[in-house]
Amino acid sequence: MKALHDLLEAMRLPNGAYVASPSSDYSYVWIRDIAYTVLPYLHSDCGRYEAAYHALLDLFRQYEWKIDIHTRQKPVLPYEYIHARYSVDLREVPDPWGHAQNDSIGLFLWGLGEGVRHGKPLIRDSRDHDIVQKLVYYLGCLQYWQEPDNGIWEENVEVHASSVGACVAGLKAVSLLVNVPPEWIQKGEETLKNLLPRESVSKDTDLALLSLIYPYRVVNRATALRILGDITQKLERTHGVIRYQGDRYYNEGSEAQWCFGFPWLGLCYASLGDRQKVEHYWAKTTALLHANHGKLPELYIGGTLQPNQNNPLAWGVSMTLLLSEHVQPLSTTPTQYAKKGTSA
């Protein structure tokens, strides 16, 4: 898997963050994409994981004044939220954007908590600690458990199960590091209980629901199997998984097929101990790699079955590396960055 690690390294910035893709459309930094991109390094001593989270903590330090405001009053306009997308020098991008993305903050907290749990020195000083505490209060001020947001796909504003689940997982992960009122977790769990297996009022199922199984593990086995059944039956296609029925993004006659859906499904089945399904989705993933000269594009354009220009997608490369750990011993993987272990 050295070639895949090399792809990630090519997208790594000097500040430790990552661009989402080398393409001009995606040459930005997203909080969410970074947190997923560095998951293969959670069990590695290469320093990539620590550098990425220190870059994100530095980003939050720069905009701490905004976080301070919205630990006391809810943001209203999109630009008032903690931004989801930044320039490569970690500055806010002034273009209009759907920045109400609670899942990205929940994911950051989850990834930071997981890193600390695995012995990584992510909290450098008292100010980093304060930032983590303020992000918890930010989610509490939002009342994330009932606050509509743009969700993982940065689109329509409604309450998304995947966003609520990310916040529940994040708050649990940092509850030993900072003060997390238990009722804030309980309220999120109540929302999930009432909403699942739907993603939202408008979507009965959605690719984003896989996050509740992997990496967050905030649903029980029965709910996980229900989610997986809905997604494989309704959303799985030949070259990937559509995000949801009726998706208009890169739609030229049908919904775009997202390539990282295959390794993501494999990782979810790995979490459930289903070896046969893991092998099945690994075969589908490697077929896409072979068809794209070792790269995993963001998606195949719906109706044309051609990959779009966002190739490779860092998040998809990361998912592929993570799934590879379940189908071959890491000790036989010729890479200088990873060492034996598993992150699922």
From TrEMBL:
Gene3D superfamilies xref list: 1.50.10.10
Alphabetically ordered keywords of this record: Hydrolase
Database matches in InterPro entries: 6-hairpin_glycosidase_sf, 6hp_glycosidase-like_sf, GH15-like
Domain GH15-like: 14-198
Gene Ontology terms, MF aspect: hydrolase activity
Protein name: Glycoside hydrolase family 15
Protein source organism: Tumebacillus amylolyticus
